[in-house]
């Protein structure tokens, strides 16, 4: 191992052949002492490569944590290099309480460079338990100036589970005051992953689903998020469906419910009105098609037979075909039982 990482004075980093890197990473813990020494080398490229290798080794590289921490604290080093060292520490998952306090300092300082702030935020989330102080610091980052760092933290928040609940108000505040569509999508996805049926979350997403002035992609994202928020979220979607069934919102809601783990009885209740509609407008035909699509392969109640049977004679081949499929599935289930 020592000979594999022996470094010449000044030649470029290419002297570390790819196969040597892979061999050292595959060795795991036995390679760590030599790589730890490289972190102290004067060549920044060598240090970066050693840090990335330690990150790939992961928790087995804890013996190098002290050297990585010492380097991160050196303000004279390039911020991007310190960020790389921080990412390695986060991947290893080992740090002292004193170093976590150093992360708080980096995230609360006004002069921390963007890449370093992003790495520090990721490290704070992944290195040890997230306490009230960490939540306070992350709340400050969510209100910060660096869009990509905020996006990264929003994406990491669901990994905190129940500890992230105090940050829900910060996420909703972003929806209230920000206009960036990408940021909105990231917040909605985080809320969906958290699965928190928070009244303010449900109310906000429900109102956007029903608002024709909201961008269609945002309404889709909101509906799919609600569908993943359990019975309360699905209930909000069904309420929206009952209040405005003649709008494009119905298509959004039907497909969102169809893509979630919606119980068969709930799905049938939502889709049934569109199967029985008779006005023949293009929108009604589209909604009937959507209703059939979400019911496909779903165990249906016996009453579904009378609603589906008339659709077998539909002039639209896709409608008659899907109706036949649902009836066949219904018949096979009934026969089996």
Describe what you observe in this structure:
By secondary structure, the chain is an all-alpha fold. It is 66% helix and 0% strand. The chain has 19 helices and no strands. The chain has helices at residues 18-27, 32-38, 44-57, 65-72, 79-92, 97-108, 114-126, 132-142, 147-156, 168-177, 181-194, 199-209, 216-227, 230-243, 249-259, 264-276, 282-295, 304-308, 317-336. Helix 11 packs parallel to helix 13 and helix 13 (216-227) runs parallel beside helix 15. It is elongated. Mean pLDDT is 80; it is low at 10-15 and 333-337.
Main β-sheet description: none
Helix content range: 55-70%
**What's the tally of helices?**
19
Q: Give the overall form.
A: elongated
**What is the H-and-E element order?**
HHHHHHHHHHHHHHHHHHH
Low-confidence stretches: 10-15, 333-337
User: Got a strand count?
Assistant: 0
Straight-line N-to-C gap: 65 Å
What would the average pLDDT be, to the nearest integer?
80
How large, in whole angstroms, is the Cα Rg?
A: 27 Å
| SS-based class | mainly alpha
Question: How would you summarize the topology of this molecule?
Answer:
Blueprint: H1 18-27, H2 32-38, H3 44-57, H4 65-72, H5 79-92, H6 97-108, H7 114-126, H8 132-142, H9 147-156, H10 168-177, H11 181-194, H12 199-209, H13 216-227, H14 230-243, H15 249-259, H16 264-276, H17 282-295, H18 304-308, H19 317-336
